[in-house]
Amino acid sequence: MKQLLKEIRKCEVCKAHLPLGPRPIVTGHPDAKIIIIGQAPGTKVHATGVPWDDPSGRQLRKWLGISDADFYDETKVALVPMGFCYPGKGKGGDLPPRPECAPLWHDRLWEKMLKIELVILIGTYAQKQYLAKKTEKNLTETVRAYQNYVPRYFPLPHPSPRNRFWLSKNPWFEEEVISDLKERMSDII
Fold first, then answer.
1. Which of 105, 166, 174, 186 is the most buried (most CB within 10 A)?
2. Cα(22)–Cα(25) distance, rounded to whole angstroms?
3. pLDDT tens, residue by residue, 22-59
4. pLDDT band at 108, cuts 50/70/90?
5. Count of domains in the chain?
6. Tens of pLDDT along 161-189?
7. Pick from 126, 131, 95, 105: nearest CA to 20
8. DSSP symbols for 76-112
9. What is the pLDDT of residue 132?
10. Domain span at 158
């Protein structure tokens, strides 16, 4: 696993497309029981090199009901985005994750993490990749139908502060989904 992570962190496959240059950000360990698959690092995470080290990460840890220590303990939680590097800025926020990363690295990572009990899929990109044709018509409906995917997968919206409107429009999310997620996290951790 150490060798694979070293190889990933040296990756420059999509260097020509990255406005800030390559800085693959990923964590994992053979003993990890949870994988969190997000989109791609933002500029703050790119700068620090620490995954989910931003307001979205703080919100995510609240949703999970776990401490920073547990969240960043690689023997418990692997942090594997769809795109390992900051993809650049688009009109409505960051660009989508680069399409090269997941096909190039995810299977190799999974081969090293055989104790995984829960895969948390954050956002549409991760959900489409891992739930394939089993997703509902949109992210909201996929998250609402989360029980169709457990115990292996748990779909979530992105915890970005930009999603405050979505959260206020969907109160069932925090009432039902988050309480179940916290319980599952507690059982596994």
1. 105
2. 9
3. 999 999 999 999 999 999 999 999 999 999 999 999 99
4. very high
5. 1
6. 888 999 999 999 999 999 999 999 999 99
7. 95
8. TEEE--SSSS---EETTEEPPPPTTHIIIIIHHHHHH
9. 86
10. 2-188
> Can you tell me the mean pLDDT for 95-120?
96
User: In whole angstroms, what is the distance from residue 132 CA to residue 121 CA?
Assistant: 12
SS3 122: strand
b/e 77-113 (16+ beta carbons within 10 angstroms → b): bbbbbbbbbbbeeeeeebbbbbeebbeebbeebeebb
Supply 3's token pair: 């060798």
Scanning the structure block, which residue is given the tokens 């139908």? 145
- Cis-peptide, bond into residue 151, ω within 30° of zero: yes
Task: Give the helix ranges, DSSP H, for 10-160.
Answer: 43-48, 55-64, 68-71, 101, 107-112, 123-131, 139-144
Q: Is 27 helix (H, G, I), strand (E, B) or coil?
A: strand
pLDDT band at residue 93 under the 50/70/90 scheme:
confident
